[in-house]
Amino acid sequence: MTPAARTQAAIELLDEIVAAAASGGAAADTLIARYFSTRRYAGSKDRRAVREFVYAAIRQAGALPVNGRAAMLAVADHDPAIAATFDGSAHGPAPIAADEPRAEGGVAPAWLVEALTASGLDDRQLAALIDRAPLDIRINSLMTTRAAVLEQWADATPTPHAPTGIRLPNGTPVEPSDLYRAGLVEVQDEGSQMVGAAMSAQPGEWLVDLCAGAGGKTLQLAAAMGNQGALLACDIDRARLQRLAPRAERAGATIIESRLLNPGREAEMLADWAGKADGVLIDAPCSGTGTWRRNPEARWRLTPERLARLEAAQMQVLEIGAGLVKAGGRLVYIVCSLLDAEGSDQVARFLASHPGWSPEPVEPGIGTPRGFGQRLDPATHGTDGFFVACLRAPC
Ligand SMILES: C[S@@+](CC[C@H](N)C(=O)[O-])C[C@H]1O[C@@H](n2cnc3c(N)ncnc32)[C@H](O)[C@@H]1O
């Protein structure tokens, strides 16, 4: 592809990404993969370059742009080499006309910047939300040690905080590697490993991972438990939960039972665990403001109405989870968001309406204190953004 054709491809892709963000359609990564699956003429260098352009344009645009061309023009304004590709050549974009619209720059839509600022983030922390994320893996302590994996993986370094984490150069193909296929490692951001560790899972315990998704944290808990005890992994999303079984098999995690829940009937379907769990992990559905480094177009999709629905879902899962915890047991609440509305405010509301429950220090001592919990953010900790709180049930 010529440089101009690459710019045009980025514009076409951005058109699809903008439309999908406006209508709740597929994620940018999915759309990029689909786009190239029907364009075999694009070689690996072309794909990489187009992908880079697309993500540069998404990061640059704080709010949803009018179209892909406006998003790429905003990038071209800062990059003369890209501006030069708007040359009207075959397969390239038309020359830039006077007064063409540009995507608005910024970290996020104004209402979200306001909410994040009110949640205590300064300009440096805000800007880091859309940086590039590192590539972290978690070693599976059921099968190996960090030292052994570091020895086998050139250019790997230990992550600074999580004892099970390893950082790899971006773009390292993890999933095709022998270590991944043998179940020795999983892709998991260091921050996610740190908040998962706040469960302090012990061998022999009975634990519930209420919002298990595809089981990233379930596998971490099973490893911390040394495969001893009982671990129930639940979710209302069949497709996500189905991905857990093959991952568990690969990881040699044998104590996991998966249970698909029907929305609205969760407590009924978990009646056999009511009041029995030593601990419940709630990795709640959230806006994902802490993971914009990986999905920067997510900030175009969030609306105040969607946020309000997520807050209601968070209170609901807190309620369901609390009903499963035995007297004196613990509940760990996590969101990968830095908005107080989803983190510290939710925990404060829960504590106010559940007499006898008390907040506990998050162990190991991670992050920055926020309300009744701790927070991790990309600028301060180099991880994705998370809020985590540990709550103790009355005896
Ligand atoms: C942040 S994701 C979980 C990620 C997962 N724990 C991991 O480490 O990869 C939140 C999950 O909560 C699930 N969820 C939403 N409402 C739920 C409910 N009422 N009961 C159980 N799971 C729910 C969603 O389907 C989603 O998979």
Could you characterize what this model shows?
The chain is of the alpha/beta class and 395 residues long. The protein folds into three domains: 3-106; 135-187, 2-Layer Sandwich (Alpha-Beta Plaits), CATH 3.30.70.1170; 195-392, Rossmann fold. Helix content is 40%, strand content 16%. The chain contains 18 helices and 13 strands. It has helices at residues 3-23, 28-37, 44-60, 68-76, 80-83, 110-118, 123-128, 146-152, 178-181, 190-197, 216-224, 238-242, 244-251, 266-269, 298-301, 304-322, 344-353, 378-381; strands at residues 135-139, 157-158, 165-168, 185-187, 206-209, 230-235, 256-260, 277-283, 325-335, 358-360, 368-370, 373-376, 386-392. It is globular, with a radius of gyration of 22 Å. The mean pLDDT is 96. Bound molecules: S-adenosylmethionine. S-adenosylmethionine binds next to helix 11, strand 6 and helix 16.
List the helices and strands and how they pair.
Blueprint: H1 3-23, H2 28-37, H3 44-60, H4 68-76, H5 80-83, H6 110-118, H7 123-128, E1 135-139, H8 146-152, E2 157-158, E3 165-168, H9 178-181, E4 185-187, H10 190-197, E5 206-209, H11 216-224, E6 230-235, H12 238-242, H13 244-251, E7 256-260, H14 266-269, E8 277-283, H15 298-301, H16 304-322, E9 325-335, H17 344-353, E10 358-360, E11 368-370, E12 373-376, H18 378-381, E13 386-392
Parallel strand pairs: 5-6, 5-8, 6-7, 8-9
Antiparallel strand pairs: 1-3, 1-4, 2-3, 9-13, 10-13, 11-12, 12-13
Helix pairs in contact: 1-2, 1-3, 1-4, 3-4, 10-11
The protein binds S-adenosylmethionine (SAM).
